[in-house]
Specification:
single chain, 486 residues, alpha/beta, Rossmann fold, 6-stranded parallel β-sheet, 5-stranded parallel β-sheet, 48% helix
Length: 486
């Protein structure tokens, strides 16, 4: 199967993750040229993306697009909204000229922020507007915050939000007229200024009666991979059956900054994936390490992390003894996977047998990641596919548990002690990347059945957006000839 993907931007979660998914599935993933996609250096080229879409569509079985990227709203500027609307016409042209191509899209309530010295104040102002939309009396604070930001800067930020919202409305119109087979509206979890747009979109989704042609998900960077997996699942003779396991109570909890319970989010994501919830004869089980109550952080929730980890480890041990594939979503924290849980699991179960692992991020993105991994892992029928799935699992353990849960905090503390800032500069970026690679390699050495078989390619670790939010690295198998290791 040949699938085109226009990602949200070029972060590893938006580009590398769907590539690994396609590799496990034996599909061909086609991406636009790098200059067409938003990156740390600025907005991509909407014109280059338009050319790529028109030239590539005829060769595809399916196309997944991030609407903001196609519309080119990241550049901002006068007339950005009008220009964005015109660029979306390429999708109608593709539907008209290539009616057999499955066309799936996502949109998120997150315009590209205005960079510069006023960025923190704009973030604070957006949060105040969110609070005002929820009925809080913050009008005086809004006035004070606005007075501290030049009108031109506030106007640019507002223009970008307006353009982003107009793109979302245009996306709904593309569902109504049959251009899009499916639209997923990302709820912009944890994003300042997203509540207003989220509420607007929720209202329109209810009133337009689009059924299952449009879905609201509390997810963001994982939307592209989720939609790629949906296209792959369409090739299966029957839907993947997914069981749900939460031995620690928590499925009915609503994670912090998300508007739906864990159980409801899982059901929505299964619908988008084209999979089904099942109580028996399942293809794999989604195991949950749940979040604390939204009004109580883990440290004050009264829940014993050690006991919760032990209970979940016991259940995973039981499922593995029954040869039931398990994908684990650790959403107890947004700061990476639970050290207590993974340390218990690595001594109790054969980690490479996990069908998937995800942690950190937002709860919605972690759930989406674990479900996508589980879907493709149970469909992996060749040695190459299973090896690729295991490589992806190791990457998630190193990234979600290792980097987000352990290394990132240490790096930020080191930087703060040395420079006064938790983020790297151009002068110390290379040294920071060396430190991260050393720390991650040490964590890899602690993972039974992975250590000695894989390594991080020396010199491959980087902070692609020159910040500590995300890192990237290359893994290779040591039991293969050098030319075949990655």
């Amino acid at each position: 199967m040949r699938i085109g993907l226009v990602p949200l931007d070029n972060r590893p979660a938006c580009v590398r993750t769907p590539r690994m998914l396609a590799r496990v599935a034996g599909a061909q993933l086609v991406l636009p040229p790098s200059e067409a996609i938003d990156g740390p250096g600025g907005a991509g080229s909407p014109e280059a993306l338009q050319v790529w879409l028109r030239d590539t569509a005829a060769s595809l079985d399916g196309l997944v697009v991030a609407m903001e990227q196609v519309a080119g709203v990241s550049g901002g500027g006068q007339g950005a909204a009008v220009a964005a609307m015109g660029r979306l016409g390429v999708l109608r042209d593709i539907r008209r000229d290539h009616p057999d191509v499955q066309l799936l899209a996502s949109t998120v309530a997150r315009p590209r922020p205005v960079a510069g010295p006023h960025a923190p104040a704009l973030t604070e102002l957006a949060e105040l507007h969110d609070r005002h939309s929820r009925g809080e009396d913050v009008a005086a604070k809004i006035s004070t915050a606005e007075a501290a930001i030049p009108e031109t800067v506030r106007g640019e930020a507002a223009a970008r939000r307006m353009a982003a919202h107009m793109v979302q409305l245009a996306a709904l119109d593309l569902v109504v007229d049959g251009t899009l087979d499916l639209l997923v509206v990302g709820a912009g979890t944890g994003t300042s200024g997203a509540d207003l747009q989220r509420s607007w979109m929720t209202t329109w989704l209810r009133q337009l009666l689009l059924g299952q042609r449009a879905e609201l998900l509390h997810a963001d960077v994982q939307l592209g991979s989720t939609l790629v997996m949906r296209l792959l699942n369409r090739e299966r003779p029957k839907p993947i059956a997914v069981g749900f396991c939460s031995p620690v109570p928590g499925a009915e909890k609503r994670p912090v900054a998300e508007g739906a319970t864990v159980a409801r989010t899982v059901l929505r994501q299964l619908r988008v994936l084209g999979a089904e919830s099942a109580a028996s004869d399942v293809d794999f089980v989604l195991a949950l390490h749940p979040p604390p109550p939204p009004d109580r952080p883990p440290a004050t929730s009264g829940e014993d992390p050690e006991r919760a980890a032990a209970t979940l480890a016991d259940e995973l041990t039981r499922l593995h003894a029954l040869n039931v594939p398990v994908a684990l979503a650790d959403i107890a924290s947004q700061d990476g996977g639970s050290s207590t849980l993974v340390e218990r699991l690595r001594s109790r179960i054969d980690l490479p047998r996990l069908a998937g692992y995800a942690a950190g991020q937002t709860a919605g993105d972690a759930l989406a990641s674990a479900l996508t991994q589980g879907c493709v892992r149970v469909a992996a029928s060749t040695d190459d596919a299973r090896a690729a799935a295991q490589l992806w699992l190791l990457r998630r353990l190193l990234d979600d548990w290792g980097y987000q849960g352990k290394v990132r905090g240490r790096i930020r503390r080191r930087l703060t002690n040395d420079t006064g800032s938790p983020e790297p500069t151009e002068a110390n970026l290379a040294a920071v990347e060396v430190d991260i690679e050393r720390d991650l390699s040490g964590i890899l050495a602690q993972l039974p059945r992975f250590t000695g078989r894989y390594r991080i390619v020396p010199g491959s670790t980087r902070l692609p957006w020159q910040r500590t939010d995300e890192c990237d690295f290359e893994l290779e198998r040591l039991d293969l000839p050098p030319a075949e290791r990655r």
